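SUBJECT: A protein chain and its fold
Encoding: whole-number codes for local backbone shapes
Chain under study, with its fold:
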Amino acid sequence: MVVGAFPMAKLIYLGIRQVSKPLANRIKEAARRSEFFKTYICLPPAQLYHWVEMRTKMRIMGFRGTAIKPLNEEAAAELGAELLGEATIFIVGGGCLVLEYSRHQANQRHKEEEQRAAWDALRDEVGHLALALEALQAQMQAAPSQGSLEELQAQLQEVRAQLRTPDPPPKPRAGPAPQAKPASEK
């Protein structure tokens, strides 16, 4: 999976570069035509870049005290326009990365909120079931046990025997009702 991601990232980078290339070219042309743009926007970064590059090369070669001559105006304008174009491409690519990252984070937050809501719903349901279970247990404890019912029936038999009342007739079954005899047969 990781191996497949690198070619895709390279392809996306190339796509962003190709899309932002016309924008960079337009900025370069504006830098060449506009004196203000050339003087204040392109030349200072180009001279700074040239100074850092040459200073680094001189130190690598062992020349520490050498003075560095600034670039002429045409070369500095060209280098500044190139730097500005590359910076534009970099900014567009970085902006795309930032937007993609923020979109991914928003999706991640949304998923976490959905999971949290589902978890809370399950927790509430478990709470309701626990309350229902407690209510059923309370009903079971409040209901007389089988042994106490048998004791009550035995006490009822004793009371009936003392009063000498006959037991109530058995309950009729759910079958057909007996037919009454006609008066002539009596």
Summary: The mean pLDDT is 80. The radius of gyration is 48 Å. Residues 160 and 167 are 8 Å apart (CA to CA). The first helix runs from residue 2 to 33.
